[in-house]
Amino acid sequence: MNSNEKGRKYMNSKITSETRTHNFKTDSGEVLALSYTLCRSARRTYSLQISPEGELTVRVPRRMPLYEIAKILDERSGWILSNRSRQIEKYGRKPVSGLTEEERTRQIAYIKRQLKPLIEDRIRHYEPLLPAWHRRITSVTIRSQKTRWGSCSSRGTLSFNWKLYLAPVEVLDYVIVHELSHLCEMNHSDSFWALVERLMPDYRIWYKWLKQNGGTLDI
């Protein structure tokens, strides 16, 4: 690959972001000006994400014009405003920690040490239930993700959020089953969810619990 090809490949993979503002119309007819983060990349479709704090991130293809982005925000305004309100409400129910930053850091480190063997034990329970041809696990890590409860890489690395230590054990099991299923299906297709259900028939209960209460899991 020559230097020009490398340069084009770099530009195609680069993600740019900026803060913009959009005027949303509420159900009462009022106009609500909200700022959002606009991310452009080589992706082909757009996506909308509301953080636990109620912050909106809009991811779009690199060359999508601003008028088209504004049209998307207008069309999805009901979803955006309702989910933003729900996230802010859940975030507001988070416990107010009396710990100093240093104490909180030490407590999180302790939780990570306690959580890893628990997760490894549950993995030993569920992994034999996967199809024999599944991708092998290379490592298990406990992290401090802001928007994810777990992840599975194409190399077989499983990562879990330390806050799962504060959730019911069934929720922990659900996230473990979810990530283990990605060892077979690196997507969220019907086949993926069928495998999740086969491993944990009542997963929907705990999936719903996590969506409704995940924002309260903190110290």
Label this structure with key terms.
Zincin-like; disordered N terminus; 7 helices; 3-stranded mixed β-sheet; 219 residues; alpha/beta
Question: Any overview of this molecule?
Answer:
The protein has 219 residues and is of the alpha/beta class. The protein folds into two domains: 90 residues, no CATH class; 116 residues, 2-Layer Sandwich (Zincin-like), CATH 3.30.2010. The chain contains seven helices and seven strands. A hairpin with a 4-residue loop joins strand 6 and strand 7. Helix 5 packs across helix 7. 17% of the residues are buried.
Helix content: 40-55%
The run of helices and strands is: HEEEEHHHEEEHHH
Largest sheet: 4 strands, mixed
How many distinct folded domains? 2
Using only C-alpha atoms, the radius of gyration works out to 20 Å
Shape: globular
Summed over residues and divided by their number, the pLDDT gives a mean of 87
Read across the widest sheet, the strand sequence of neighbours is: 1-2-4-3
Low-confidence stretches: 3-12
The overall strand count is 7
Short description:
By secondary structure, this protein is α/β, with parallel strands linked by helices. The chain has seven helices and seven strands.
Write the layout of secondary structure elements.
Layout: H1 3-13, E1 16-25, E2 31-41, E3 47-50, E4 56-61, H2 66-75, H3 77-92, H4 101-126, E5 139-143, E6 150-152, E7 157-161, H5 169-181, H6 190-199, H7 203-213
Parallel strand pairs: 2-4, 5-7
Antiparallel strand pairs: 1-2, 3-4, 6-7
Helix pairs in contact: 4-5, 5-6, 5-7
